[in-house]
Amino acid sequence: MAQINAKFVTSNTDFKNCPPARFPEFAFIGRSNVGKSSLINSLTFHKGLAKTSQTPGKTQLINHFIIDEKWYLVDLPGYGFAKVSKEKRKEFEKMIFDYLIHRENLTCLFVLVDIRLKPQAVDIEFMNRMVEDEIPFYIVFTKADKLSQKQVNESVDLYKNFLLEMWDELPPIFITSAEKHVGREDILKSIEQLIQS
Ligand code: GTP
Ligand code: MG
């Protein structure tokens, strides 16, 4: 895999202040602590590019990175973070949804879910909202290193069957471990394909 050039651009609370929308953009979202920032660091081969933490709620802004001077990668705050006040959570949600709905160059959203958990209401609600708002998304299972291969397969099958009860077809699905750098090539390939299509 060729070296990736990744640079931090800006952090914003308001999508209107995000960098000019002149490159295709790919954003990473999911519950707090699911591993968004870690996956971004794995994808870009830059350990400290996106700030990670064991404490949920680390990423609180819309963070833009420019990759190889040709696409934007965006690290978003987690949704469903229980430990902040109701007002703060509303503020976060507004910030995230305003960004998702209005960002014209958002090519695809990667929705991260922890592979160890059964389908969680907050993730399912979020994905259904993306379907309603016609925001294209892919699903990424994180922390696969925490399970055996057998458990990984069982967990993914269970999730797929759950989704197929609601939807006629599934979006592309990725199984990843930021820790072991699993799945990053597949994600990078899918981004490359979307940029070229
Ligand atoms: P917020 O910014 O708070 O929303 O969290 P985040 O989704 O960006 O999660 P972050 O990347 O900060 O990771 C949260 C915790 O999970 C950290 O302690 C990471 O080390 C751990 N983690 C993330 N990805 C993996 C993984 O693939 N495997 C393992 N074992 N741990 C991981
Ligand atoms: Mg983060």
TrEMBL record:
<protein>
    <recommendedName>
        <fullName>Probable GTP-binding protein EngB</fullName>
    </recommendedName>
</protein>
<dbReference type="InterPro" id="IPR030393">
    <property type="entry name" value="G_ENGB_dom"/>
</dbReference>
<keyword id="KW-0342">GTP-binding</keyword>
<dbReference type="InterPro" id="IPR019987">
    <property type="entry name" value="GTP-bd_ribosome_bio_YsxC"/>
</dbReference>
<comment type="function">
    <text>Necessary for normal cell division and for the maintenance of normal septation.</text>
</comment>
<dbReference type="InterPro" id="IPR027417">
    <property type="entry name" value="P-loop_NTPase"/>
</dbReference>
<keyword id="KW-0547">Nucleotide-binding</keyword>
<comment type="similarity">
    <text>Belongs to the TRAFAC class TrmE-Era-EngA-EngB-Septin-like GTPase superfamily. EngB GTPase family.</text>
</comment>
<dbReference type="InterPro" id="IPR006073">
    <property type="entry name" value="GTP-bd"/>
</dbReference>
<keyword id="KW-0717">Septation</keyword>
<feature type="domain" description="EngB-type G">
    <location>
        <begin position="22"/>
        <end position="197"/>
    </location>
</feature>
<keyword id="KW-0460">Magnesium</keyword>
<keyword id="KW-0479">Metal-binding</keyword>
<keyword id="KW-0131">Cell cycle</keyword>
<dbReference type="Pfam" id="PF01926">
    <property type="entry name" value="MMR_HSR1"/>
</dbReference>
<keyword id="KW-0132">Cell division</keyword>
